Every structure is written in structure tokens, then in C-alpha cells.
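Readers of this paper often ask what the protein records in our data store actually look like. Below, we set out a record of this kind in full and without editing:
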Amino acid sequence: MNALPPVSPQSLDDLLICFSHLRWDFVVQRPQHLLSRAARTARVLYVEEFVRHDGYDELRQRRDASGVTVITPYLNHGTADTDAVLRDFIGDLVRSTRHDRLVTWYYTPMAVTWTDHLPADVCIYDCMDELSAFKFAPASLKANEDRLFGLADFVFTGGRSLYDAKRQRHARVLCLPSSIDAPHFLRARQALPDPADQAAIPSPRVGFFGVIDERLDLGLVASTAAALPQVQFVMIGPVVKIDPAALPRAANIHWLGSKHYNDLPAYMANWQAGWMPFALNDATRFISPTKTPEFLAAGLALSSTAVPDVVSDYGSAGLVRIGDANSMPAEVQRTLQAAGAGQRAAVDAHLARSSWDMTWQTMRQCIDRVPTSDKALRRLNNGVHLHV
């Protein structure tokens, strides 16, 4: 096995430009945690998917409080060759932004069709999901991912299942599972005022927060709520890609909509347990839910369906109870009885082993391993596989 070049401290003025399928303000998840940390030492541009409008083609920019500059392309409804327009926009943007080292960072392989011309010194693919398995995935996504593997210097995966699926497709693959902003969610262990839209809901409450889409098992939500009429199920998050009319309705199911990241601890502090009723389908086969350690940091006992990464990383350690359509009501009841000092001590010992700061430090070390003076050498495939 060949060794990687040693890490050498860089005194470079970095420009990191990220291409993502996710809106920056949608929900706080992996991109926001990592790129906010990158913005402490680099210029970070976060390029969202384009928006159609009636005006002229333009790039709209705004500075987020994290230091990240969020860029949204607005294209006229009549603009046909979107790739050509985006290619010119992004090329001009990079040329007009002072930098010594250009780092391109991808969450969506679809962006390679209009960014592969960029003179990147370092190219990163942070693969947080198997997007090809998601509802309405573009037919060309897999082909574009193949192109992205050819450009990338490192591929990071958001969980172990994704690592197993990608490790043979690139020479440098690192498994960096979902981490935790522990201080933020530890606030939920304190007595916090109950939010107004939750205050009238009786106890006991079992909560969920996250995107509500095809990854959620709505049938399981309905059947579990029916089996436990005395338990109130609080469901927080935006509804996307599914018809809101399809959400199960019952007196003990409460769909509260999307909430700001800063407000989540107040909701969670007034729950008695958490649950993750994920469907077991192609869209969840490779997910490593960021919310798993967030629930645990909040001090909530947690039940989940048998998502592979949840089972391997948390279920096998006894930190999350695993249930199915038949056993979930019993598992939910057990979580309502599970809170205690012993459980929290085991959780805290597990969570102490990771943080978003630690994850970003590992990623930054990888970036600094890539030589910037010889692009031909940088593109050599040295056959190294990494797993952390």
C-alpha cells in the first residue's frame, strides 16, 4: 500500500466552492455543519440549484451569518441551454474571487456538467446520500457520478453503508458518518419553555424531526399511533415530494411543520422520547441519519426501524431500540420508560468520540495532502483506501 503525501501546513488563500442540491436554508444538516467550519479559514461559496423566474439570468448572492456566501442562480424561463449559462457564470465567479487554491466540493454529481472546466487544485465529493435511489432522481445522475469520481481527489461518505457501496469506485474513500453539534442539543436536557404550538399537546410525547418525504413510513406512523392512543406523536419537519393529504391523521398525531434549527432543543426538551419511523426502501438503504446522535444528545431514549447504519452504529451498542411494524408500539413504550442516568452515561461516552469539528479537521487534513503544484501527480491513482 502506497502512503499518502504527508500533511504540510498551508499558508494558502483558499476558495472553496460547493455545488449542492439542497437549499442552504432548508434544514440544517451535514453541509451546513461542515461548510460553516470551513468558512472560518477560507472563502466559502455555496451554489444552490438554479431557480426559474421572469427576469434576466443572474447570480444572486447573500452572506450567511456563518460566513458562507450563498449563491442562487436565477435563470429566465426561456433560457434553454442552462449548462452553458451556468458554466459562464461560475467561471466568471471563480476568476473574480481572489484565491491561491481552488477547492471544488460536490454534494450533487449533476453539477459536473457545468463545472468540470474549473481549474480546481483539489476536488472533493462529499457523498452524503445515495441520490440515485431518491424519488424523482434524474436519469443521468449515475453517469454524472461516474464523471465526478474521475475528478475527485477524495470521496467522503456519510455512513458505513455508503462507504461499502463506493469504496471500490475510487482510490481514496473515507467513511465519515454523521456527527454531532453536542452543545446545541444538550440544551434539551434542561427545562426549556414549551413552544406555543406544542404546549397544549398532552404527555407523554414521542417526537420526530426531519424532512418528511418518501423515506418516512407513513403506514407505520398511523399503525403505531393507533396502537398507542395515549401517546402523542409530535412530527416536525417540511413535507416534500409527497402529498400532504397522504399524511395520516389522528387525534394523537400532530404535524407541526418546519421549525428553525435554533428552536429544536425547546421542542425536544418537552418530549419524553424520540423515534425514527423510516421506511425500509431504496431511499433509506444507505442513509446515516444525522438526527440519530442529535436525539441522543438531547437526552431522549430513541426507537427506530432497522435502517442499516442505525443498527450497526447505535442499535448494536444498545443505544437505540430497533422495531418493525409489529414491535414498534412495544419499543416506543420501552423508550418512554428508558430514560435514566445509566442510559445517558452510555450515550455520552459514545457521542464523545465524534464532533463536527473533528470531522472537518479530518477533511481539512485530506485537502492539505493534495499537492497543488503538480496537477498531473495529483490525479494519479495510487490505489489507497482509507476508512476512519
Remarks:
- The chain has 13 helices and 15 strands.
